[in-house]
């Protein structure tokens, strides 16, 4: 008999009828399957809690993200992200079979994909920071350098970097996303939420981070005990409330994606603490990556 284990459904693929084969012996299900690898084929894809368009997005995937598909039905796939383990449903049309490993990642907030190496061409896609592509060549047109994709499309060369590289300062990455609209479940430069900002910024700096704020508050770096006036914090520290995450830009100012301004912006730490307190209480944790 399977011994009940409390597993986070956000990070473990199991339902009463079907479960990830790796969970056999930990959960009960009618069937266990291995799952098959697929890859996100669109610039941004919503991961939903249920297989229907009206289900709110839990998070998002970006072009080039890898997933494991456990089930396909009625135009939906039940998947788990390879990068952060998040589980949910995406539209089947958003996925494709992997065709080699991505070589480059977008390293600016947003960039255009052109049908050829000419910025005067009408663009065919817009990609977010963090999107991954396969580059097969390079060329120059009127002094502008382009990297050419496997399908012949092109991206401005300076807007990409090799996937093995990373930014030196994740806070500086977050600062490039200032004024990005707030979007619940968002993980892109088109719309982002508080923990999405933390995760994407850290990923671009070569640091893995869980997806949701409660996961981040439990796992990232070391716990810091703040002074009574929070005077011992520094750039890069993470401040958590119940359901919210923010990044210290310096010892007195944070940067966060928030529903108050509906954008990513700076805010004095003490102003944020006072503003948030009456609804959600005081900070629950401070961590130093």
Question: Describe it for me?
Answer:
There is one protein chain. By secondary structure, the chain is mostly beta strands. The protein has 3 domains: 18-96, SH3 type barrels, CATH 2.30.30; 104-162, SH3 Domains (SH3 type barrels, Roll); 170-288, endopeptidase domain like (from Nostoc punctiforme) (endopeptidase fold (from Nostoc punctiforme)), CATH 3.90.1720. The chain is built from 4 helices and 25 strands. The protein has a 6-stranded antiparallel beta sheet, with helices on both faces. Strands 8-7-6-3-9 form a 5-stranded antiparallel beta sheet, with no helix packed on it. It starts with 17 loop residues before the first strand and ends with a strand. The model has no long low-confidence stretch (mean pLDDT 97). Belongs to the peptidase C40 family. GO terms for molecular function: cysteine-type peptidase activity. It comes from Phyllobacterium leguminum. This is NlpC/P60 family protein. Pfam families: NLPC_P60 (PF00877), SH3_16 (PF18348).
| Number of E-state strands | 25
Q: Which stretches are low in confidence, meaning pLDDT under 50 for 5 or more residues running?
A: none
Gross CATH architecture of the largest domain: Alpha-Beta Complex
The proportion of residues forming helix, as a percent range, comes to: 10-25%
The helix tally amounts to 4
What Rg do the Cα atoms give?
20 Å
Distance between the termini: 41 Å
Strand order of the largest sheet: 20-25-21-22-23-24
Return the structural class.
Answer: mainly beta
Order of helices and strands: EEEEEEEEEEEEEEEEEHEEHHEEEEEHE
Number of folding domains? 3
Describe the biggest sheet?
A: 6 strands, antiparallel
Q: Which whole number gives the mean pLDDT? A: 97
Oligomer: single chain
* Beta-strand share of residues: 35-45%
**CATH H-level homologous superfamily name of the largest domain:** endopeptidase domain like (from Nostoc punctiforme)
How would the global form be characterised? globular
């Amino acid at each position: 008999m399977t011994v009940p284990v409390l597993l986070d459904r956000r990070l473990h693929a199991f339902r009463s009828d079907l479960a990830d084969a790796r969970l056999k012996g930990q959960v009960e299900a009618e069937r266990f399957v291995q799952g098959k690898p697929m890859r996100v084929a669109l610039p941004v894809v919503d991961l939903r809690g249920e297989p229907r368009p009206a289900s709110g997005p839990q998070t998002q995937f970006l072009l080039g993200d890898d997933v494991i598909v456990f089930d396909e039905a009625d135009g939906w796939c039940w998947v788990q992200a390879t990068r952060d383990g998040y589980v949910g449903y995406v539209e089947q049309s958003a996925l494709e079979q992997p065709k080699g490993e991505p070589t480059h990642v977008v390293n600016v907030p947003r960039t255009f994909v052109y049908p050829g190496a000419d910025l005067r061409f009408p663009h065919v896609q817009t990609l977010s920071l963090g999107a991954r592509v396969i580059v097969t060549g390079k060329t120059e047109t009127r002094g502008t350098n382009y990297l050419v994709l496997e399908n012949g499309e092109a991206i401005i060369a300076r807007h990409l970097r090799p996937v093995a590289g990373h930014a030196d300062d994740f806070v500086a990455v977050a600062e490039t996303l200032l004024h990005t609209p707030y979007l619940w479940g968002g993980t892109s430069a088109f719309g982002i939420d508080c923990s999405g900002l933390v995760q994407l910024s850290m990923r671009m700096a070569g640091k893995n981070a869980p997806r949701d704020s409660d996961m981040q508050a439990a796992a990232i770096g070391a716990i810091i005990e703040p002074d009574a006036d929070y005077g011992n914090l520094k750039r890069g520290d993470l401040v958590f409330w119940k359901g919210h995450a923010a990044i210290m830009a310096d010892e007195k100012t944070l940067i966060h994606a928030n529903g108050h301004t509906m954008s990513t912006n700076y805010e004095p730490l003490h102003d944020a603490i006072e503003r948030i307190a009456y609804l959600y209480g005081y900070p629950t944790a401070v961590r130093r990556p």
